[in-house]
Amino acid sequence: MAQAQVSSGLNALDVRDLKPGQFIWAPQVAPEGPVVLVVSLDEQRAYAYRNGMAIGVSTISSGKPGKDTPTGVFTILQKNKDHRSNLYNNAPMPYMQRLTWDGIALHGGSLPGYPASHGCVRLPQAFAEKLFAITRHGDTVVVANAKAAPASVVHPAVLAPVTQTGQVHGRTFDEYEVFWDEAAPATGPLSILVSLYDNRVSVLRNGVLIGSAPLQKVNDVALHGSVLLVMTTEMEDIPSFLDKGQRQHRWVAHRVLGEEGVEMPSLAQLSSAYWVPDAFSRKLYAILQPGTTVLISDLPGVRGTTAERATEPVLESAP
């Protein structure tokens, strides 16, 4: 994956020169706003964004061969600063943030300079503590590995939302079906997945699926990967196709996966290329707020598998 873009507060040369266990942390670049973490497996780096600005970058240690860290788009499901492994000798896993119910998480740990975990993403403990302090349940974590073909990075899908009871959402939708949960909570991080592979929009609040609708392509625009958008408080004249009406918020775009050197289409091009049912669009527009994240991807969308309620341990090796 091409090195993630860093803000003026983080020097790109410094990022390349980081040794195992080192990190850069500059929260003053964006003191407030939503947090998105982008993990690059091939770089063995994690990039922290707040309100669309890079505020930190860290070395990591991901899953070793045979225990690979899964790629995709995840939401933070649980947080526990004092977690210990119940698989491997009660090994400490400080500042644990769960990404999947089958055991993948972020946490502080040993960084030998190469992938060494049983699937988790290990962070320097000091960085893990700082990140833990600013994230919320439902915040977005993107795990990418450009060594795989963009259209087949994750199978069967890039996102596994959960139900209100903590189970993986197993519902599938007919091609033209529109779903909206009127009883869904009105607060919490809002994330939207636009899958151009499935021609579908999925809306999640706190990692829980609250809406889904078909997406119709009306103009030929090639994305060539995945783009993460963050809604800001600023206004502009050109809305996105998910942000129609009198308020037209500015969206900050970050390519998180794709072909290096291939230009990303503009938000205006994306806005004119796709259509979402009007009734669904109005419901979605009504709940958009600064901090909303949108992932537009060529990859398949919401997983259709089921699982037991989250009682699984985190899959980590002993230090």
UniProtKB/TrEMBL annotation:
Q: Which residues are in the L,D-TPase catalytic domain? A: 35-144
Q: Name one GO biological process term.
A: peptidoglycan-protein cross-linking
A Gene Ontology CC term for this entry? Answer: extracellular region
Q: In which pathway does it act?
A: Cell wall biogenesis; peptidoglycan biosynthesis
Q: Molecular function (GO) terms listed?
A: peptidoglycan L,D-transpeptidase activity; transferase activity
**CDD domains on file:** YkuD_like
Mind telling me which InterPro entries this protein's record contains?
A: LD-transpeptidase, LD_TPept_cat_dom, Transpep_catalytic_dom, UCP029342
Q: Which UniProt keywords apply?
A: Cell shape, Cell wall biogenesis/degradation, Peptidoglycan synthesis, Transferase
Residue numbers annotated as active site:
107, 120
Q: Which domain of life is it from?
A: Bacteria
Under the heading PANTHER family, the entry gives: L,D-TRANSPEPTIDASE, L,D-TRANSPEPTIDASE YCIB-RELATED
Q: Which family does it belong to?
A: Belongs to the YkuD family.
Name of this protein: L,D-transpeptidase catalytic domain
Q: What is the lineage of its organism?
A: Bacteria, Pseudomonadati, Pseudomonadota, Gammaproteobacteria, Lysobacterales
